[in-house]
Specification:
This protein is of the alpha+beta class. The protein has twelve helices and 26 strands. It is globular and about 60 Å long.
Length: 473
């Protein structure tokens, strides 16, 4: 009787419990065609899902934690004036710690990071994934691309090989590896959301912005980290997030390796970026301009001004020409054109394809440097150097700290007029000849790049003291 009861119970369980589940499975095949296709595709994606383990394993050992110490000037205390010597020993500067990420690119310790991570650092430490710590030296920096090259004394290090950012496609998977919030070796994944983004994040007349946009999560500390493809090849250096809150909100940006490699090779070989320019002022083509010129597409870089003696002038390009290709590569925006030019050095030859009055033409062009020739730019003679000082546009932090609205900062000082005047590294120049300045180029223009044209200079020393020097009449 017990055996018969058990058999009946088993039959009842099978009939009552399992049958509905079979009915559900059968019902799934009755879903509409489009839903059924989505259902099947989801299973296919699970079976063939991209495996990130290899890329992550290759990358984490080559990404480092960069820690910096910077001396920041403190504003003057009004009590110093009231009580005199009583507070005269109060420190004028305080130490501020910073952190970011870096990418090892050679077994002997060359490391790429962002310029904004190390630009004011008095001391730089690098912590490897195996917890070893090294002091790093700066080989060179380029504010125009936000790239810096540093080096540690070490051997047989894990490193990343360059990939090809030009071949990246929108929708392709990528990994971001860095140190957000001081958390080392953090890996996030996302897709390429867009290419050629220009958000005006960088300062300077020769800035290059053609960012890779991804939805891989980045936060404070990821700057200088690696963006790699699924093969573990370096395709970008992460440097910014686009966020209303200052933390990750779905958009992150990286400098494409096509720009990074050129800048790093220059810094490593010459100590100064060999920046090629074509001698034009340009803007994106809009719908109004496209209609005016009877263009078939709203694409291209519109020339608004030609520099006398520049490469474009030599090639007989003119204002209102629309550049649509550079060296055979399609360029639909100013940022895409800057990216292609940024791969070259002064003296390189290329081709420019442009539209004039609806007619397409292609001309050869020889690229020049900022001085208007094809010579190698030596250390201390780069795009941001005037009268022996490297001048960089004033960032928002310094503007708040010194309560100023404009200015350029002396970040390096070599022999020249500014050094002879007693100016120091960290000095902020607000105006020259009573004209406000915001870039090194504006300093050149105001003085005609001639020391004898300097009549007055106004600014702020690093300790917060203001100065106003005047010469002659």
């Amino acid at each position: 009787m017990a055996f018969i009861g058990a058999a009946i119970a088993l039959f009842a369980y099978t009939t009552i419990i399992e049958k509905p589940s079979l009915t559900v499975a059968k019902d799934s095949s009755k879903i509409q065609e489009s839903d059924a296709q989505a259902f099947l595709t989801s299973f296919q994606m699970q079976e063939g899902q991209v495996d990130f383990k290899y890329a992550a394993e290759q990358t984490v050992h080559a990404v480092v934690h960069v820690r910096t110490k910077t001396m920041v000037s403190q504003p003057e205390n009004p009590f110093d004036w009231i009580f005199g010597d009583r507070y005269s020993n109060r420190p004028r500067e305080r130490e501020v710690a910073g952190y970011g990420s870096g990418v090892i690119i050679s077994p002997d310790g060359y490391i790429i990071t962002n310029n904004h991570v190390v630009e004011d650092a008095e001391n730089i430490e690098v912590k490897l994934n195996d917890n070893r710590i090294f002091t790093a030296e700066v080989i060179g920096r380029d504010p125009n691309s936000d790239i810096a090259l540093i080096k540690i004394k070490a051997e047989n290090l894990s490193y990343l090989k360059y990939g090809d950012s030009d071949k990246l496609k929108v929708g392709e998977w990528v990994l971001a590896v860095g140190n957000p919030f001081n958390l080392t070796s953090t890996v996030t994944a996302g897709i390429v959301s867009a290419k050629g983004r220009n958000l005006n994040l960088l300062e300077g007349d020769y800035r290059i912005e053609s960012f890779i946009q991804t939805d891989a999560a980045l936060n404070m500390g990821n700057s200088g980290g690696a963006l790699v493809d699924t093969k573990g090849l370096l395709v970008g250096i992460t440097n910014a997030i686009f966020s209303p809150s200052g933390t990750y909100a779905g958009y992150s940006l990286a400098i494409p390796v096509s720009i990074v490699k050129k800048v790093v090779d220059d810094l490593r070989q010459y100590g100064e970026v060999q920046r090629a320019i074509i001698g034009v002022k340009i803007t994106d083509v809009d719908s109004e301009e496209a209609k005016k010129q009877n263009l078939s597409e709203v694409k291209g870089a519109l020339i608004t001004e030609i520099t006398d003696g520049g490469s474009a002038a030599d090639a007989n390009l003119k204002a209102n020409d629309v550049i649509i290709k550079f060296d055979g590569v399609n360029v639909g925006t100013v940022s895409e054109l800057q990216e292609q030019i940024g791969k070259h050095r002064p003296g390189d030859r290329a081709t420019v394809t442009y539209l004039r009055n609806g007619k397409e033409s292609t001309v050869p062009i020889t690229l020049k440097n900022v001085a208007g020739n094809t010579d190698v730019v030596k250390v201390g003679m780069g795009t941001g150097v005037v009268f022996g000082a490297r001048l960089e546009a004033l960032g928002s932090t310094d503007k708040r700290s010194y309560n100023v609205e404009n200015g350029v900062k002396i970040t390096e000082l070599n022999d020249g007029l500014f050094k002879d005047m007693g100016l120091k590294r960290g000095t902020i120049i607000l105006s020259i000849n009573d004209k406000k300045v915001n870039t090194a180029d504006e300093v050149r223009q105001v003085t005609n790049n001639n020391e004898k044209s300097l009549k007055s200079i106004k600014g702020v020393f690093s300790d917060g003291r203001e100065f106003d020097f005047r010469y002659g009449n």
